[in-house]
Amino acid sequence: MPDASIRHPSLDGTEIADSVLDLIGETPMVRMKRVSEERGIRCVLAMKHEVTNPGGSSKDRPALEMILAAEASGELQPGGTIVEPTSGNTGVGLAIVAAQRGYKCVFVMTTKVGKEKVDLLRAYGAEVVVCDVAVAPDDPESYYSVAERLTQERNAFRPNQYENPHNPVAHTNTTGPEIWRQTDGRITHFIAGAGTCGTLTGVGRYLKSMNPDIQIIAADPEASVFSGGSGRPYLVEGVGEDFFPAAYDGDLWDDVIPISDEESFLTARYVSETEGILIGGSGGMAVAAAMKVADAADDDAVIVVLNPDSGRGYLSTVFNEDWMMNFGFVQECEQCVGAVLDTRNASIENLLYVNPQQPVSDAIEIMRENGVSQLPVCKNTPPFANAEVSGSVDELELMEVIHRDPGAMDTAVEKVMSGKLPTIGVGQKVELAVSMLETAPALLVLSGGRPLSVLTRSDLLSYFTAVAEAAEAGL
């Protein structure tokens, strides 16, 4: 531990910060001029760029506020341990504060989070525990349950950003006043992603107190509860929820704009290439919503969108071509997997599936009626666009199960299902599908990050036959 008794020279008259914690806040605001020009936006569209916080995100603000409050209340004692579930940014903020004030950190993350975010937290000396994102919130192995168990086992302090009132307070005290000052009080709309709701509620409270006519608008993943979804599945990190956090204040919000994973990621790439501002998926989501608002706004509007972090945390996902192609967000070629699906019998639905709770007999009936041998097991359906894949069933495996136990016809599919089918993007090459089907019985085709269809060897044979017949006919 550092020796607190050591006296340091005064920094009076210098521009040297006393510690990295003094660098939190006072982030810049920049007009999105090139994006506005390309889209014909005549009003002011500006970005509050939180990347210049020492941890690279807006979460540094509540991290500091929550720890200072816990110290003042006695909840966090000298040399103590901090445990928090996080998608990365809050963890970094807490790790920075912990390093400065002598605490240990344990962070719980999901498999949805990119590897670089896990590595980043470990670089700060934190312990990281990764949980399966597909596990239900009330499962003992879920993101939230594991964090609660570790808090008890380590006799630790859990800031609990979802419930902690000092989360929105941080933004009411700092972010809101900065935005008001930087726009000279001319701001008409504020847009930010909805997650813990700390930013939207905290900034919204301050701005509404200064001018009740300012529009507070939440950008939200399509499947999140804030825009009427179930809370899953979606791929964009750090925003959206499957429950309403304590800081949620729907009366404060003037609108909620749902944005798909595809639009979020493609907007992040567009802004990064057009403005030279590298933003992540949640930043892309917020900007996509802000552009919709700007398209319909009056010429004298001043729209501020909060960019929470940098795209450097998404180099293995949003800015990785292989990842984007595998999830069906970008297309690799013209004659791709999508072309194979287009030649298939139109009577077959795009996505045939069975729910985990349905009996095995239902799965067999679906296979018989449609002449297929494999089915993905999906929940959160219908519609299939909201399907969350949890496994698969195969006719040969079901035959063996029923042969051993005829009563298994009434067993829930989830009791006998196998692992998930390998995935391929709708825009990936047919050659890749051929290679993958040499070892896999079928592939799950993704489009826009969502399951679209199951691709089989039979589908490929039909496609190659159609191509050959077209070539022979001179088409």
Provide an overview of this structure.
With 475 residues, the chain is α/β, with parallel strands linked by helices. It folds into 3 domains: 20-56 and 165-311, Rossmann fold; 60-153, 3-Layer(aba) Sandwich (Rossmann fold); 325-472, CBS-domain, CATH 3.10.580. Helix content is 36%, strand content 16%. It has 15 helices and 14 strands. The protein has helices spanning 33-39, 60-73, 89-101, 115-123, 143-153, 166-182, 198-210, 261-275, 281-296, 321-326, 337-342, 360-370, 395-404, 430-436, 457-472; strands at 29-31, 44-49, 81-85, 104-110, 127-131, 189-193, 215-221, 255-259, 302-307, 374-379, 388-394, 423-425, 442-447, 450-456. A 6-stranded mixed beta sheet has the order 1-2-9-6-7-8. Helix 3 (89-101) links the parallel strand 3 and strand 4 (104-110). Helix 2 crosses helix 6. The protein is globular. The N and C termini lie far apart (77 Å).
**CATH architecture call of the largest domain:** 3-Layer(aba) Sandwich
The domain count comes to: 3
Low-confidence stretches: none
Tally the beta strands.
14
State the order of secondary-structure elements, H for helix, E for strand: EHEHEHEHEHHEHEEHHEHHHEEHEHEEH
Strand order in the largest sheet: 1-2-9-6-7-8
**Helix/strand-derived class?**
alpha/beta
Number of helices: 15
Estimate the strand proportion.
15-25%
**Mean of the pLDDT scores?**
91
Rounded to the nearest angstrom, the radius of gyration is 25 Å
Distance between the termini: 77 Å
Which fold name fills CATH's third level, the topology of the largest domain? Rossmann fold
